Amino acid sequence: xxxxxxxxxxxxxxxxxxxxxxxxxxxxxxxxxxxxxxxxxxxxxxxxxxxxxxxxxxxxxxxxxxxxxxxxxxxxxxxxxxxxxxxxxxxxxxxxxxxxxxxxxxxxxxxxxxxxxxxxxxxxxxxxxxxxxxxxxxxxxxxxxxxxxxxxxxxxxxxx
Length: 160
Hints:
This protein is an alpha+beta fold.
């Protein structure tokens, strides 16, 4: 099996969206994906790209991807956020995720970032063990907080 990892192109957007949907299903949120191919294309391949994506492919096509973007930490400065790392179900356990993960870390190093961060679900024990084996710290005392579009709207309207 010959897996190649490369930077995604505009032509890969439909495959990227397919992998995002597959990840949502895996994470038990099958209806959570609202983004379209056009949204992904505009955000990632327009004049000011908001993200970078790496894809892994074999002779059958794209089998995984890692989507990242830059953030700024007031503690350490420039960081990379790994939004999604997903491998097609039939290819899991074959080293594809490791290849994508290595590509993200190499990219972060060449970009001079001080930290790479991401979120992992507490029940995803396989991913947690993998990350810990690579030297990453799983921070169980830090909680992810988010507000959806409706929550944002309600908050702003109630606090004017």
